[in-house]
Amino acid sequence: MLSLTRRILKKFHPEGIPFPGTFFYNFVSKSKIFQHHYDLISQDVLNHVTSGKVLDIGTGPGWLLLSLHKQNPHFELVGADISASMVERAKANIQQADLSGQIHVEIADAKSMPFADDSFDAVISTGSVHHWKDPLTSINEIYRILKPGGYAFLYDIVSDIPKAVLKQMAKDFGRLRMFLLWLHAFEEPFYSLDNYRLLAGQTRFKEGTTRFVGVMCCLSLRKSLPNVKLSGSWEDRKFEV
Ligand SMILES: C[S@@+](CC[C@H](N)C(=O)[O-])C[C@H]1O[C@@H](n2cnc3c(N)ncnc32)[C@H](O)[C@@H]1O
Q1: Among 20-24, 39-43, 172-176, 189-193, which stretch is predicted with the lowest mean pLDDT?
Q2: Residues lining ligand 1, Cβ inside 6 A
Q3: Judging by beta carbons within 10 Å of its beta carbon (0-12, 13-18, 19+), is residue 234 exposed, middle or buried?
Q4: Confidence of residue 173 (pLDDT cuts 50, 70, 90)
Q5: Could you give the domains of the chain?
Q6: How far is CA 74 from CA 52, 63, 98, 131, 154, in A?
Q7: What is the pTM for the complete model shown?
Q8: CA-CA distance, 35 to 43, in Å (whole number)?
Q9: What is the spatial order of strands in the sheet that 103-107 belongs to?
Q10: How far apart are CA 236 and CA 225, in angstroms?
């Protein structure tokens, strides 16, 4: 599935981000381009899910949870991350926003989530899937913990971002940032767009679609409803609630 170079990169790439990487990532992700993306993504989530319990896997410093809360304080928000140091970061950021009582974050590995079956209305993730050592087991875990009819939106960078997307981002954020992103793609085991989409077919979701939200590629998945025969293509029905 991944090219040989990316398979080697993945072997040595740490799954969870340890300290002091957490300190550095927290600092970088406060930047304008990151915060713009958290807002873009939370708006995208809100286009499809407007209430209920939402889990962010690989939540890192927790900025996406804070952005989602800002846009809709009625969500019940939970964050999970395999890195204890990241969870500490997220808790500190959430506390600083005075939201400790409202947003819960805990240490958890995507491939074995400490949550009951059918317990979330939506599961989201940004920039984390390419870190997962066992992505298929992890995506099957997402299927297990989603309520029937629930959505998963997995946003990640891909190694072959279309030129048109890069051009638009360069317009918004400058060529230097886009050049840094392009360089970054050589040292991170990102999936190609095709391989990212193909992940869905090997899991209990059976199918999924991809589209771009800013510079992030979103793999959209939906847990089927029991005893409901859906008509039309998945493209037509994917955002029905
Ligand atoms: C590049 S950071 C992205 C953080 C955050 N989602 C964001 O967009 O700023 C990737 C995060 O995924 C976490 N992670 C990696 N593998 C994981 C796994 N198997 N289960 C849960 N979290 C994981 C890392 O510890 C890290 O915090």
Answers
A1: 172-176
A2: 15-17, 29, 57-60, 63-64, 80-83, 86, 109-110, 126-128, 131-132
A3: middle
A4: confident
A5: 4-224 (3.40.50.150)
A6: 8, 17, 16, 30, 22
A7: 0.90
A8: 12
A9: 103-107, 76-81, 53-57, 120-126, 146-156, 216-222, 209-213
A10: 16
The answer to whether 217 touches 210, Cβ cutoff 8 Å, is: yes
On the question of a cis peptide bond just before residue 61, with omega within 30 degrees of 0, the verdict is: no
The total number of residues shown for the chain amounts to 241
Sign for the CA dihedral angle at 27, 30, 96, 22 comes to: negative
Task: Return the best residue to mutate from 57, 81, 136, 158 for the ligand 1 pocket (most ligand atoms within 8 A of CB).
Answer: 81
Please give the single-letter amino acid code of residue 185.
Answer: A
Residue nearest to atom 5 of ligand 1 (CA): 60
Nearest atom, ligand 1, residue 63 CA: 9
* Residue 238 pLDDT level (bands cut at 50, 70, 90): very low
State in Å: Cα 227 to ligand 1 middle: 35
Residue whose CB lies within 8 A of the most ligand 1 atoms, among 29, 128, 218, for a mutation test: 128
Closest ligand 1 atom to 22 CA: 27
Helix segments in 123-162, DSSP class H: 135-145
Distance CA 167, CA 202 (A): 32
pLDDT over 70 for what percent of the chain? 90
Using most ligand atoms within 8 A of CB, pick from 131, 138, 140, 190 the residue to mutate for ligand 1.
131
Measured by CA distance, the residue closest to atom 3 of ligand 1 is 127
Asked if 189 and 6 count as a contact pair (C-beta separation under 8 A), the reply is yes
